[in-house]
Amino acid sequence: MSTLRELLLQEKELLDRFITCLHEEATALKDIRPEALDAIGQSKLALTQQLDTVENRRNALTSVPGSATGRAAMQQWLSRHPEEAASNALWTEVLALATEAKRLHNLNGELIAMHLSKTSEAIEILSQRLRDKPLYGSDGQSTGSTGCRIVDSA
Hints:
Blueprint: H1 3-30, H2 37-62, H3 70-80, H4 85-132, H5 149-153
């Protein structure tokens, strides 16, 4: 098995694991389980570091100084090495997985933005109520009548 094929297999396996983390993150966001997000974030960070390492090794193997880099370099390398058909097929899978990971990552970002918006709205509502009817003044002493008989008689 060629070195490139080994690297692509590693990259594919890491992307599969990363996508699994993204699905777990989406489930935690949908189920409103923020306590799970820290561990998932740590797993995602470790996987991205591993992916960077494998990608750097792949780029070092396929890049030619003074020519294209990244995906373009990989395509050029594969076109110069038709005997690497298995690597070419793996590269196609890696690209598809990377596209799926990006889609899921963006979706999770939208879920986070939605939660942030709802939280901000709730904080604004609570802050407005506190401004409108404070029970205690800035000095910590109770204020005058609140307009609520139960609270005022307590």
